Amino acid sequence: MTELLDEVILAGGVRRAPSLEGYRVVRAEIAADHEAYLRLRREVFVTEQGLFAGSDLDDVDEDPRRIVLLARADDGEFLGGVRLHPAQPDARDVGWWRGSRLAVKADARQLLGVGAALVRAACAAAEDAGALRFDATVQARNEGLFRRLGWVPRERIHLHDMTHVVMEWPLVRIGRLAEATKSPLGDLIGALVGRSTPGFRGDDGAPVPGSDLVAACDAILPSMVERDPEWAGWCAVLVNVNDLSAMGAEPVGLLDAIGARDASFARRIVRGLAEAAQAWGVPVLGGHTQLGVPAALSVTALGRAERPVPGGGGAPGNQLRLSADLGGGWRPGYHGRQWDSSSHRTSAELRALSGVVPALAPTAAKDVSMAGLVGTAGMLVEASGCRAIIDVAAVPAPSAASVADWFTCFPGFAMLTAEEPGRVSTPAGLPGFVSSAVCGELVPGTGVGLRWPDGTVTDAIDHTVTGLGPAT
Question: Has this prediction a pTM greater than 0.85?
Answer without folding.
Answer: yes
